[in-house]
Amino acid sequence: MRIKCFLSCLMIACAIGQASAQTREVTLKYGAERTGKRTDADMQRWRDNRLGQFIHFGLYSIPGGFWKGKYAGGAAEWIKAGARIPNEEYVALVKEFRLPKFDAREWARAAAEMGVKYSVITTKHHEGFCLWPSSFTDYSVAATPFARDLLGEYVKAYNDAGIDVYFYYSIIDWHHPDWRSSIKSAADSLAFFRYRDFMLKQVEELMTRYPTVKGFWFDGTWDSSVVQHGEITWQIAQLMKRVNPGIISGSRLRVDDRGARHFDSNGMLMGDYEQGWERSLPEEMPGNDWECVMTIPENQWGYHAEWRGHVKNPTEIIEMIAAAASMNGNFVLNFGPKGDGSLREEEMEMAREVGKWMRVNGEAIYACENAPFAPRKWGYYTRSRLTGDAYMIVTNPPLSGVLKIAVPAGLTVERALLLGDASYDERPARGTKNEFALPAPARPFATPYVIKLVLEKKETPAVHDDDPKV
Ligand code: H76
User: Fold this and answer.
1) Domain covering 371-457, topology
2) Whose CA is nearest to atom 9 of ligand 1?
3) Which of 26, 173, 211, 273 to pair with 69, CA 20 to 30 A apart?
4) pTM given for the model
């Protein structure tokens, strides 16, 4: 009896809890800064970029997933944790950081060849090692035999190549004495706030040393130390906006007063875009701006000498780029350069193949967004924000040899052009219910092909539209 009463009280309490979460607005100090999408030019540039590159580079690039000759499980940049490497041994990698083959212009050239419009680099990953000579720690490139400002060279080379740069910054820091994963005492709390001050100084340092940086990519915000201190993430966001009001930062940085991450306790997105799409794409189009970050193999962000698991091919990557653009999202492909500073051959090959495709078909990706036509099984639609032209990115050519497009009444598909092949120029035939049919190009394709649709606002007369009511 008492148990029953307890259970029903609990159920009522839960029901009230749910109802209030849906109806009552939670008052928050550190919740979403804004409702709806950003509409300014800096954010539009981020959106129009559509294709980006991620670079994971740090001390972990030197062992490349092997420690003392043994394959280390997990992702290669986590080797310190995965192979349980003692601090003294890990720190000794600083003396091996020589990078005889590093040339930032080579990295930028490969990125430009792939057609990326922005690049995100790990200025400091979880290991805590900094790719710039920071004034606030000795654990940086300044302490290595390499001794140059790697980040500065990267920023210059990429900007010279016309590519925007973004900085990845890990809040987890396995090296800093004040970083805590959880707060268990007053001393921990004091330490963690000292670490907060260190982060604020480093973020400001990064923004002032490298003023062309367009935004930040924060990571490692899931530990209870951060989740219990949403105000810290808000302070970082405020600092960035103070130094550069146009700065862009995703939702992963942010935690609200109650420990809600990405979306605040009222369900509003914190930060400028959804930053939770890691190695996965949404099934349905998110209402917010969003970005997907993707690896080629399964076992690395940072360089792993032995790729394991499924290794994605260029056509798979191209399909994901198309899927992302068709749902108003950005796609960012990760690279893990080798410990000597050179790029790995498999990744250069990927960059070349994707670039080859982007040079012909990029107009269907850059500055493109969702085209509001009924989805079709042959692939993805996009539409240029600048010209209004629609594109069919055909990833699954139909056996019938016929591509169908259903457009809203009052629109006509006037012409269809195959990108990269002027011999294909079709005037689609109208079918029932304002559906237009196109012959699929006859020749086989190794990568998706793109058909540009010239649309006009006019009715196309139906050949036969007088079906009886059914
Ligand atoms: C977990 C984790 C991290 N987040 C990805 C973007 C990589 O940096 C990985 O190490």
Assistant:
1) Immunoglobulin-like (2.60.40)
2) 301
3) 173
4) 0.93
